[in-house]
Amino acid sequence: MGILEVQNVNKRFGGLQALNNVNLDVEKGSVHAIIGPNGAGKSTFLNCLIGKLKPDTGSVNFEGNSVLGKAPHEINQLGISRVFQTPEIFAELNVLENVMIPCFAHRDGAFKVNAFARVLKEKGIREQAEDVLEDMGMKDKRNLQASSLSRGDKRRLEMAMCLVQKPKLMLLDEPTAGMSRADTNNTIELLKHIGETRGITKVIIEHDMHVVFSLATTISVLAQGAIIAEGLPEDIKGHPKVREAYLGEVEV
């Protein structure tokens, strides 16, 4: 049994069948990529996993327990963290403060803004945040204002904010969107490092085939709301249905 099991999920918006009987089984410790053309249903599917949307039919189970009907923050506390397409950070705070906030929220539940001053004084929280920043190669930037960071470092910071919550599953929505090739390659190496040191299962939605084939252990191809192919990267690369629906005849 996988850490994440999705069975017969359907979602319709009026006359549009956004998801059509989607099944997905994500093995613990794997890097499972979901690829597909624009409009394939990837964002809808991701929103069903994190509680932003409820499927019309079907089930979504994490570690054997249903997440349907749970609020996004409840799903987060079960051990699922999401890295957004556009980095979601507190731009006016410094790097260390950004990492301390989700650490505090994960420990105590809903975060109260008026408790922020207390967070900064907590030695245990500060040490956890600094440990994660060191692991991410950002400890020397801990006092910089988050808004001053490069796109790549903002993504690195957001991942630190996820990791400090000790997730079992990370959902990454186009983690290299808008990055230079250098930042993209750095992010690939960072995700490999996270896998090697922490063993966190990852589901990645990504357009960049370089990223997908560098990281994925399993690939599922979503087209017109349905999974049309699934398998090892080498199987997907040459799959005729995949080429027709998404990759075309370009070299990947």
Give a nutshell description of this structure.
This protein is α/β, with parallel strands linked by helices.
Describe, in plain words, how this protein is organized in 3D.
The protein is an alpha/beta fold and 252 residues long. The protein has two domains: 1-79 and 168-252, P-loop containing nucleotide triphosphate hydrolases (Rossmann fold, 3-Layer(aba) Sandwich), CATH 3.40.50; 85-166, Rossmann fold. It has helices at residues 42-49, 72-78, 95-108, 116-121, 123-135, 151-163, 181-198, 209-215, 233-237, 240-247; strands at 4-13, 16-26, 31-35, 57-62, 65-66, 80-83, 169-173, 201-205, 218-223, 226-231. The chain is globular and about 55 Å long.
Describe how the helices and strands are arranged:
Blueprint: E1 4-13, E2 16-26, E3 31-35, H1 42-49, E4 57-62, E5 65-66, H2 72-78, E6 80-83, H3 95-108, H4 116-121, H5 123-135, H6 151-163, E7 169-173, H7 181-198, E8 201-205, H8 209-215, E9 218-223, E10 226-231, H9 233-237, H10 240-247
Parallel strand pairs: 3-8, 3-9, 6-7, 7-8
Antiparallel strand pairs: 1-2, 1-4, 4-5, 9-10
Helix pairs in contact: 3-5, 3-6, 6-7
